């Protein structure tokens, strides 16, 4: 927790420096369609407004306002950054939690299926397919799902939070959430399944498993009671280190599906050099990854009392 403070400071400093070095035209992004109708003097005033402050001074002003909750005003949303974050962060967390949860739920039966015969044809085909899927970026998986399930079959909407003009409700949100959640989940299934399968193959040859089989315990119960729980411990330990990947994948998925989360704001802020919103969104996603890793470590210590907390 203490290391999070200097980490956040360094991340935010890097964001301001990299955004200032970006070749994007902040004034054009701010003006949008009005850019071609704006005169030279007016455009110069806009440039002074959105990009006239040195990046270090802008960073210091942003940091100075953090203790009072003043994170500045977003030039892309034309509203205070706090309001943008309050409206978008819950949707990002919903997508990440559901995507990771669905991925974990799908990985367990796949790992159990492969572990029944680790050297069999099913295990070989399954692991090969998962290795291939792990090499596909999350945004490619998302576009493939759109092409098949939305454009090809017409079963699901292509994006957004609701249908045009429809009120925000559980039915509308749930229907529009299916494809983004599947995209995030499919990016997580390969590594969860492969790590779990490898740990289960080790547990299959453990003394506890051999003793259970000698007592006549059915093979299905051996897998679910004597193999799966110990195998989940190293997988959970790796999950904390993989959370930044979940965050990065969710950001890309949000942009593809026009999901109203922080990821979409992050892309728009980067293109427009919206320093305040860009830094705030990046720092919040960094904190989510750090706290998620901490939660994974705490769960690991809770599940396995043999774990040394100082060694994590």
Specify the CATH architecture of the largest domain. Orthogonal Bundle
Helical coverage, percent range: over 70%
Total domains: 2
**Largest beta-sheet characterization:** none
Secondary structure category: mainly alpha
Rg of Cα set: 24 Å
Subcellular location: Cell membrane
Protein name: ABC transporter permease
Family: Belongs to the binding-protein-dependent transport system permease family.
Organism: Cellulomonas avistercoris
In short:
The chain is mainly alpha-helical. 74% of the residues lie in helices and 0% in strands. The longest helix is centred in the C-terminal third of the chain and has 39 residues.
Commentary on this structure:
This protein has helices spanning 4-21, 26-31, 40-51, 55-65, 81-115, 121-134, 138-152, 170-203, 207-214, 219-257, 262-272, 275-303. It is mostly helical and 312 residues long. It folds into two domains: 4-68, no CATH class; 88-311, Orthogonal Bundle (MetI-like fold), CATH 1.10.3720.10. α5 (81-115) packs antiparallel against α10 (219-257). It is globular.
Draw up the topology in text.
Blueprint lengths: L3 H18 L4 H6 L8 H12 L3 H11 L15 H35 L5 H14 L3 H15 L17 H34 L3 H8 L4 H39 L4 H11 L2 H29 L9
Pfam families: BPD_transp_1 (PF00528)
Membrane topology: Multi-pass membrane protein
InterPro entries: MetI-like (IPR000515), MetI-like_sf (IPR035906)
């Amino acid at each position: 927790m203490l290391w999070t403070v200097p980490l956040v400071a360094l991340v935010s400093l890097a964001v301001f420096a990299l955004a200032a070095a970006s070749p994007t035209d902040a004034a054009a992004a701010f003006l949008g369609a009005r850019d071609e109708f704006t005169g030279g003097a007016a455009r110069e005033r806009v440039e002074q407004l959105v990009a006239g402050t040195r990046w270090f001074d802008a960073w210091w002003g942003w940091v100075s306002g953090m203790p009072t909750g003043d994170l500045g005003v977003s030039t892309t949303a034309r509203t205070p950054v706090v309001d943008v974050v309050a409206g978008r962060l819950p949707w990002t967390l919903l997508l990440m939690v559901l995507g990771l949860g669905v991925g974990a739920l799908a990985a367990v039966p796949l790992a159990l299926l492969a572990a029944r015969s680790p050297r069999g044809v099913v295990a070989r085909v399954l692991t090969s397919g998962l290795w291939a899927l792990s090499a596909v970026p999350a945004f490619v998986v998302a576009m493939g799902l759109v092409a098949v399930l939305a454009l090809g079959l017409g079963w699901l909407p292509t994006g957004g939070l609701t249908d045009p003009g429809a009120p925000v409700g559980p039915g509308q949100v749930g229907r529009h959430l299916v494809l983004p959640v599947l995209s995030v989940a499919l990016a997580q299934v390969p590594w969860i399944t492969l790590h779990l399968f490898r740990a289960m193959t080790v547990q299959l040859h453990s003394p506890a498993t051999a003793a259970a089989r000698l007592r006549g315990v059915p093979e299905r119960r051996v897998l679910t009671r004597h193999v799966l729980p110990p195998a989940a411990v190293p997988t959970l330990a790796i999950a904390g280190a993989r959370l930044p990947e979940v965050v990065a994948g969710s950001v890309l998925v949000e942009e593809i599906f026009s999901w109203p989360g922080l990821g979409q704001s992050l892309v728009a802020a980067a293109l427009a050099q919206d320093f305040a919103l860009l830094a705030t969104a990046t720092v919040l996603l960094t904190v989510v990854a750090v706290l998620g890793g901490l939660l994974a470590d705490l769960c690991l210590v809770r599940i396995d009392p043999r774990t040394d907390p100082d060694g994590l």
